[in-house]
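> example.struct
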């Protein structure tokens, strides 16, 4: 995931991904992208 200044934008992009991969993997991916 590309690091964007707006975390809301990344969250919006990660939202659909969470539904596809599942909440568990979605949260892990979001945490990795945020860090």
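> example.seq
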């Amino acid at each position: 995931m590309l690091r964007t200044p707006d975390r809301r934008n990344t969250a919006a992009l990660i939202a659909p991904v969470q539904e596809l991969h599942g909440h568990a993997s979605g949260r892990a991916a979001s945490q990795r992208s945020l860090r």
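> remarks
The chain is about 75% helix and 0% strand.
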